[in-house]
From TrEMBL:
Gene Ontology CC terms, in alphabetical order: SCF ubiquitin ligase complex
GO annotation (BP), single: SCF-dependent proteasomal ubiquitin-dependent protein catabolic process
Taxonomy, superkingdom: Eukaryota
Domain F-box/LRR-repeat protein 15-like leucin rich repeat: 87-204, 260-359
Name listed for the protein in its UniProt record: F-box/LRR-repeat protein 15-like leucin rich repeat domain-containing protein
Pfam families reported in the protein's UniProt record: DUF7885 (PF25372)
Lineage summary: Eukaryota, Viridiplantae, Streptophyta, Embryophyta, Tracheophyta
Length: 386
């Protein structure tokens, strides 16, 4: 009897806890399992759990029927969670523009939004995002194939606090859309345009000095566009892996104007010449890692320029370069005083004698045979809210 009285007393006490008190308790729960259990206690506690929820992630099921059902439920879930600062709807290809109207419920608090592979979304949906979420800092639109310059213009005008933007494989955008981003978002520091084949690069003209990280893998930039890409003067990381040439000629010498560049990926840039390598080596004194794998246009003059100018270089990639030879390797061994790692394999003109001589002259350099596709900071970290 005494135990029953205590249980009833406890229930009455808990039922009189204010929402603020319950929210304080909820915020101290560390595991997602405990937070979900909290919300299942009763209707009022579920309301508090929804208010306290800061992050919402939908996982793609790769089943169109299930993903369509998720897309149908999203507006109701968003309407019940008004304080979200991070939402990921990645992989929901069936997501309609209308589902994004409910983002306004979390509009003032929302800072990070991933719409990765939401291929059903159009410029109208992105306009809803721009209107309802003015404080967005991180936006991922990779593989949103229906987004055009009009959508980017809406986003840039509504979300001027943007710092990180992923536009990878957005085939419908051009230099006009990129220019709008730079015109309206003065704090942009990370941009990914990988696979955007309609960009020449001239949209970067006048880009802010805050732009530090650029991924432009498999793009087709013009010589003038390459100069515009580095016009802001703030780039520290640049990925031009498999960059095409709209003219069939090398225009990469303009990267010499990226004075702050620390990490440069030119893997498979087959148009690259010794003249451009020399210009980059002499113009970018802070280079720490340089990927020149499968760059067949680099010969002894280029490798000698790296030896002469790259005094801060720590990591160099020369895998499968056809025109690096023993003499080139000896030249590198005579310079680059801070070199720590040399990725080297598949170089037909390098002999065992050349490798042995380099090892004797530079015993502290780690010779590695692995070929690295991606260098520098991970994209995941760059698009994660601090």
């Amino acid at each position: 009897m005494e135990r029953e009285t205590m249980d009833v007393s406890s229930e009455n006490y808990i039922s009189h806890l204010s929402d603020d008190c319950l929210l304080s308790i909820f915020n101290k729960l560390e595991s997602e399992l405990d937070r979900n259990a909290f919300g299942l206690t009763c209707r009022n506690w579920l309301k508090v759990r929804n208010i306290g929820r800061k992050s919402l992630t939908f996982h793609c099921s790769f089943n169109p029927t299930i993903d369509k059902e998720h897309a149908r439920c999203i507006p109701n879930i968003l309407a019940r969670s008004p304080c979200l600062n991070r939402i990921s709807l990645a992989g929901l290809a069936e997501l309609p523009d209308s589902a994004l109207n409910a983002l306004r419920m979390s509009g003032s608090s929302l800072q990070s939004l991933s719409l990765y592979c939401c291929s059903g979304m159009t410029d109208d949906g992105l306009a809803q995002v721009a209107i309802g979420c003015p404080n967005l800092v991180v936006v991922e639109l990779q593989s949103c194939f229906n987004i055009t310059d009009a959508g980017l213009e809406s986003l840039s005008k509504g979300c001027r606090a943007l710092k990180s933007l992923n536009l990878g494989s957005c085939m419908g955008i051009s230099d006009r859309g990129v220019s709008a981003i730079f015109s309206n978002c003065s704090n942009i520091c990370t941009l990914i345009i990988t696979g955007c084949r309609c960009l020449s690069g001239v949209g970067f003209r006048g880009c802010p000095i805050t732009l530090r990280y650029l991924e432009a893998e498999s793009c087709m930039l013009s010589p003038d566009g390459l100069l515009d890409v580095v016009s802001g003067g703030g780039l520290e990381y640049l990925n031009f892996h498999k960059l095409g040439s709209s003219t069939g000629r090398d225009g990469l010498g303009g990267l010499a104007f990226a004075k702050r560049l620390r990490i440069l990926n030119l893997r498979m840039c087959r148009y690259l010449t010794d003249d451009s390598v020399t210009a980059i080596a002499s113009g970018c004194p802070f280079l720490e890692e340089w990927n020149l794998a499968v760059c067949h246009g680099v010969h002894l003059p280029g490798w000698s320029a790296i030896r002469l100018y790259c005094n801060k270089l720590r990591v160099l990639h020369v895998n499968r370069c056809r025109n690096i030879c023993d003499q080139s390797l000896i030249a590198l061994g005579d310079g680059c005083p801070h070199l720590e790692v040399l990725h080297i394999n598949g170089c037909a003109k390098i002999t065992n004698n050349g490798l042995a001589f380099f090892t004797i002259s530079r015993p502290h350099v780690n010779l590695r045979v692995d070929e690295v596709m991606s260098i520098g900071p991970s994209i995941e970290n760059l698009f994660r809210m601090q």
